[in-house]
């Protein structure tokens, strides 16, 4: 069943107005879900940033321990020298260096002057675990006896030359990590904290969560990584948790669920009002839009029919940009159709022209092969080889129709069937020169005939002869030299070969088709052809006007 545009616009208004309230609820729900995903992403980013900042601090401490572990003073051991080296390395930082032995006694502590009597380690539990495991680790938060404040340690076990095991330790005040928990990266209403493996607060943006006190939410022992909901003291909270694999600590961000959901309530009210306003505006505008659409669609239909008849179409201006885009596309399609038809006609003429040229070449090969053949088999073999050479040139021409045929590739292609087992006997050298299809066919046949003659009478007829094909550009010309050496000279055969198709190709076709100048020289050890061709004749297909017309 078909209806005008106005009918469908009215139906659209009814669909919007009737379920407006339900629509608002759906939008609100989706908005709330999107908001939660955005919050989740932001909070994951925030807790991830805290995690990376804490891990950078700890990684830096481990790097410092690795450096101090290479100290010569430690290997002797010279604790006085080690004290001086560590104090200098840690100067200006809030980190201190300790050495703890297997009995948990401090051998060195840069918090106090060297020589000050030292007691047992303040946290023997984690220190003992590090020595037992023989691997680096990070302690939980503890109250340092020497520092008289909350600190944490990083340990690096090491065995000295005397066989004793010691624990290289860096200790840092928990308060120094406060810069890693930056409240500026959190959304309003959210707080963040760093907890150790026991759930003890190390640092927090919430002043009520004191360092050294258990975190008020029960996130330990369960990891609860990612986003979760928790209830504590009758209040619902949303929590995002990250875990540091380096320290074993947790980075927590939390907020009251009521604070997080407050924007959704406001969004519901605004969406309801917006839905009502939208429905009213849609009802007023529907008929006006329908009239504009109907008129413009009729114009587009007229242009489409003209396109089908092959007429050119001028682009129209429409009030609706999408319809103007369609009009532009119709106009461009009409122009493209006319252009394509012209290109097809040109290509048909070009195919006919090149087919005639190739038929002329084949006819000349047929006549010369028949004139020089001693019998039918000789004629068939000679003609087959010449056609194969022409086919190889044609393959290169087709494969490189747009760029032109490379002379080096053409030469290798034509000489390959005649190259002896010792490939070093055939040398081809020259710069890159591009040929048009006609020039590549002519030069391809010339190289084929030169190779044939060399195989029959010249340098490739024995086991020692060499063939050198070289070319170079000089000004506006291409200078090409075919030189055979170490060949057995048979002047009668050479004279006879100059009457054959090879000489016809070289002297007539190269001369007539490419305006080439040829010199033939007979040396004591082989023949030489010197050919000079204007470079402009090698790329005539690319010297035409932009439409390809000759």
UniProtKB/TrEMBL annotation:
Pfam name, any one: HWE_HK
UniProt keyword Magnesium, yes or no: no
The protein's Enzyme Commission number: 2.7.13.3
GO molecular function: ATP binding; protein histidine kinase activity
Signal transduction histidine kinase HWE region domain sequence ranges: 350-432
Reaction(s) the record says it catalyses: ATP + protein L-histidine = ADP + protein N-phospho-L-histidine
SMART domains, sorted: HWE_HK
Top-tier EC class: transferase
Source superkingdom: Bacteria
Bilayer-spanning residue ranges: 6-28, 267-290
Protein name: histidine kinase
């Amino acid at each position: 069943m078909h209806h005008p545009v106005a009918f469908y616009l009215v139906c659209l208004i009814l669909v919007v107005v009737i379920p407006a309230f339900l629509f608002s609820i759906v939008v609100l729900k989706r908005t709330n879900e999107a908001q939660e995903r955005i919050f989740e992403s932001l909070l994951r980013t925030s807790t991830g940033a805290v995690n990376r900042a804490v891990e950078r601090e700890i990684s830096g401490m481990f790097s410092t321990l690795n450096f101090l572990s290479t100290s010569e003073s430690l290997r002797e051991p010279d604790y006085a020298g080690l004290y001086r080296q560590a104090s200098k390395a840690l100067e200006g930082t809030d980190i201190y260096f300790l050495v703890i032995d297997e009995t948990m006694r401090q051998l060195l502590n840069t918090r106090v002057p060297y020589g000050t009597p030292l007691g047992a380690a303040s946290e023997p539990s984690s220190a003992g675990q590090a020595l037992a495991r023989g691997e680096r680790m990070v302690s939980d938060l503890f109250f340092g006896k020497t520092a008289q404040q909350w600190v944490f340690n990083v340990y690096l076990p090491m065995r000295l030359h005397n066989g004793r095991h010691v624990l290289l330790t860096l200790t840092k005040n928990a308060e120094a990590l406060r810069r890693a928990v930056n409240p500026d990266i959190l959304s309003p209403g959210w707080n963040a904290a760093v907890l150790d493996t026991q759930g003890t607060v190390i640092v927090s943006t919430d002043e009520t969560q004191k360092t050294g006190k258990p975190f008020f939410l029960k996130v330990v022992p369960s990891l609860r990584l990612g986003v979760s909901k928790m209830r504590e003291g009758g209040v619902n909270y949303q929590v995002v948790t990250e875990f540091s694999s380096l320290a074993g600590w947790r980075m927590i961000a939390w907020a009251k669920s009521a604070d997080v959901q407050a924007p959704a309530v406001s969004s519901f009210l605004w969406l309801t009002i917006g839905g009502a306003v939208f429905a009213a505006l849609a009802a007023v505008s529907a008929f006006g839009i329908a009239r504009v659409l109907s008129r413009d669609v009729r114009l587009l239909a007229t242009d489409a029919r003209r396109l089908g008849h092959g007429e050119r179409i001028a682009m129209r201006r429409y009030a609706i940009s999408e319809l103007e885009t369609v009009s532009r596309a119709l106009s461009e399609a009409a122009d493209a159709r006319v252009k394509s038809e012209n290109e097809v006609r040109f290509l048909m003429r070009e195919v006919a022209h090149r087919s005639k040229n190739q038929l002329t070449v084949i006819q000349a090969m047929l006549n010369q092969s028949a004139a020089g053949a001693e019998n039918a088999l000789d004629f068939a073999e000679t003609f087959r080889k010449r056609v194969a050479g022409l086919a190889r040139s044609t393959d290169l021409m087709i494969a490189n129709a747009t760029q032109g045929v490379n002379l080096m590739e053409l030469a290798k292609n034509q000489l390959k069937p005649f190259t002896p087992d010792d490939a070093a006997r055939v040398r081809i050298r020259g710069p890159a020169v591009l040929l048009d299809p006609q020039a590549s066919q002519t030069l391809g046949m010339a190289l084929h005939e030169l190779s044939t003659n060399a195989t029959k009478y010249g340098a490739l007829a024995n086991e020692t002869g060499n063939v050198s094909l070289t070319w170079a550009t000089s000004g506006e010309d291409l200078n090409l030299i075919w030189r055979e050496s170490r060949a057995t000279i048979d002047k009668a055969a050479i004279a006879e070969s100059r009457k054959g198709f090879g000489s016809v190709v070289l002297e007539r076709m190269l001369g007539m088709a490419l305006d080439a100048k040829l010199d033939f020289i007979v040396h004591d050890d082989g023949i030489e052809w010197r050919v000079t061709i204007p470079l402009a004749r090698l790329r005539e297909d690319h010297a035409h006007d932009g439409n390809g017309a000759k």
